[in-house]
Amino acid sequence: MGHHPQQVPPVALPVDGRGMIGNMKTAALVSLRGALDFMCFPRIDSPTLFAALLDGERGGSFAITPRVPHANVKQMYLPETNVLLTRFMTGDGVCELLDLMPVAADAPRADQAPNCVLRIVRLVFGRMTLDVTCAPRFDYARAGHEARAVERGVEFIPADGSPSVQLLANVPLSLDGARACATLELEEGDCACFAFGLPEGLADIEAEHDAVLAATIDYWKSWSARSTYRGRYREVVLRSALTLKMLSSEEFGAIVAAPTFGLPEAQDGSRRWDYRFTWIRDAAFSVYALLRLGYTGEAEGFMKWIAGRSRDCSSHGQLRVMYSVDGEDALAEANLDSLVGDGKGQLLIGNEARAQIQLDVYGALLDSLYLYNKYGAAISYEGWRHVTRTVDYVVEHWRDADNGIWEFRNGTRPLLHSRLMCWVTVDRALRLAEKRSLPAPLASWFSTRDEIHHDIHEHFWNDELQSFVQTPDSDTLDASTLMMPLVRFIGPKDPRWIGTLDAIGRELRVDPLIFRYTRGPTLDGLPGTEGGFSACSFWYAEALARAGRVDEGRLVFEKMLAYANHVGLFSEEVATSGEALGNFPQALTHLALISAAYQLDRDLDRVHVPWT
């Protein structure tokens, strides 16, 4: 069977020491050590099958690792694809590990390929010994399993009755208890191939691995070629778009916030939320970003998903904050005791925020509908009826206290960002009604829009700070205020806005990092000090550019780009020490990056042009 030395637990790597692969059904993270150490399966919001990222001992992983302990490692994506290449280099040899989830390039839908991971190992120079260990852990490591030999591989059969998975290979595999192992003694030109996933169609993937690899590369390259963005940040914008595509569901059209749960937002190990859901709020950002890059099909898929949620709430107009990928209710929050992680904080699955009131989601919904009407397709009669019900709900409830965009867990309060997005709800509905000559109670809507505008200026303006603040009569600053000029509530050079922008730069900024709100022990009722919120930094860069401070905005943007990991992926937050925090990679960060890059391009092209 060969000797299988104990690998260093993957958790010793920084969280962002990984690339992501995906097939628009699920996604997986592959570490710089060659370990596939996080994957929910068969769907991106299913229980984990591999979670060594969270718990090196119990979580399970699929590792292909050089026996030499200190091989030099480089990881990259094949250009314009989501095919990940990890290269191990020693004095004796150079080995390439290709990781991908096959997608069907010629089928009507990309996700019609078998649901699996394909791993191809090639020795390009010299010789090298690698150890292969595939140790899945079903249902968040709560369900045991047995392993048995099948033709060309191993089948893993979970005790809880859920579907089996298989590992097929073109090299001999052996069983070590409930895991599959192999030792690869490779010489120049040798190739080993492993296909892991649901049994259906898996043998074909393994047997035809070169053709599957070529088809998957072709699919991603042709998808990338459809991007209409030709600006100076083409590479990072395309990587962000490719990442968002992997976080989207081909079947349902939804985009999840992140493929992970349980990664702490604070350095003390606390604030470990589950982000494998679709937030309505991300709608406007997603639709805006995708349309900006020319991806109308993806924007349409997301709009159809959102239209379904609007229909669900058609009787009362009230939306949930987040949903599962298929549009059902998000999972209830529960402690997960089967994975203990580093012992610093309780792991949770599900998200309690699903039951919160967050009034800003209606603005996100209406803004995306408005944009899609402008650049995509006109709204239907039924669609408009759902819109009017939603707007009427906001007209009635905009004064309510809520939990807001940051999902405060210590009670509701009247929040500026929620008021702002209620204004967006009514404003976009009015614009739609006028543009398309649609029937609506215009007098009531106009009066509400004006009332909200007046309320924000009267009650959320702090004269002493010369800034808008989070709650009435407070001195708490909030980075979500950066949305004010972005949603066209206020002119980007309005004196009140410039005062606010300066206050945020003074109080919430550490280098390019922007913290979500004035830091204090009681504000959000949670332990630990979080890092700078990556999306807020990109909003800040965009707001600076719109305010005419283009070089300043560009420097913030470029400094933030340095916080991407080695393959261009961004975590949710960054500690002042530069460490990646929170769930990874995060859709909202990549969406905000696309928006800021687009704005900076426009402003940089206008600026530095001599007067003629």
Q: Assign the CATH topology of the largest domain.
A: Glycosyltransferase
Query: How does the overall form come out from the CA principal axes?
Result: globular
Class computed from helices, strands and strand pairing: alpha+beta
Helix count from the secondary structure assignment: 15
Helix content: 25-40%
The strand count comes to 26
The share of residues in extended strands comes to: 15-25%
Q: What separation lies between the terminal Cα atoms?
A: 77 Å
The total number of structural domains is: 2
In the CATH scheme, the class of the largest domain would be Mainly Alpha
Named CATH architecture of the largest domain: Alpha/alpha barrel
Runs in which pLDDT lies below 50 for 5 or more consecutive residues are 1-11
Taking all residues together, what is the mean pLDDT? 91
